[in-house]
Predict the 3D structure of the following.
Amino acid sequence: MKEKPIGIFDSGVGGLTVLKEISKLLPNESIIYLGDTARVPYGIRSSETVVKYSIECANFLHKKGIKILVVACNTSSSVSLDILKEKLPIPVIGVIIPGVKAALKTTKKGKIGVIGTEATVRSQSYTKRIKEINPAIEVISKPCPLFVPLVEEGILEGKIAELVIDRYLKEIKESGIDTLILGCTHYPLLKKSIQQYMDGIKLVDSAEEVAIEVKEMLKELNLLNEDGGKSFKTFYVTDDPERFKKIGEIFLNYGIEKIFKVSLEEDK
Ligand code: DGL
């Protein structure tokens, strides 16, 4: 059981930020990553559609014999985590709670900003969780839909990135928050530019927090793989592997070897 892989899924390539942090913290673990590249973006779709897609992704990975499922996509985590937990007989970790916990530890003023896709912000997943833990905290959230294509085009800094950041984050910057949750898989790649703009404001990267949560969970369940000798990383995508490989290698900073195209429809 300990040697079984960790399953991670995302709507596309963005969840590699989560994979990167998990493999940094848990280098002995094998990982199977699924990117639903044929149906990305999830962030502009209805909750019903995102739930349907998320169940298909989770079932695919479960059939591959994973020991734990990480829902790297903030949009999926926002609308389908409870359903996936109910449906799967293995532990399921999403990205919302780890991000919330980190933000609550960070804020001194009790004023937190949250940025994410339209679906994530509409679901109020972060706001609800924060308020459940501490109702006195003020939360200001804002969808930043252009950040995802910017990252996918590799525009991480410079004039265009700065203009888009200013357009989306001006109001939130002036609102007096001291902590900003990067509530989307892609946003950690814009961290440097966002940090420059949000001078003095602490950025919370859910990817790092999720890795810590995965480690704690595996330890608690006695499922940590102590022997990394046979560990592997396999990638599955639902559309052309070439584009994923190209962008993915920028995300990861290393070559993606084992990558296969699959159909989730056939898998049902
Ligand atoms: N993975 C999505 C998220 O973290 C961003 C991309 C998309 O919209 O599918 O919300």
Notes: The two ends are 25 Å apart (CA to CA). Residues 10-12, 14, 40-43, 73-75, 116-117, 120, 148, 184-186 surround D-glutamic acid (CB under 6 Å).
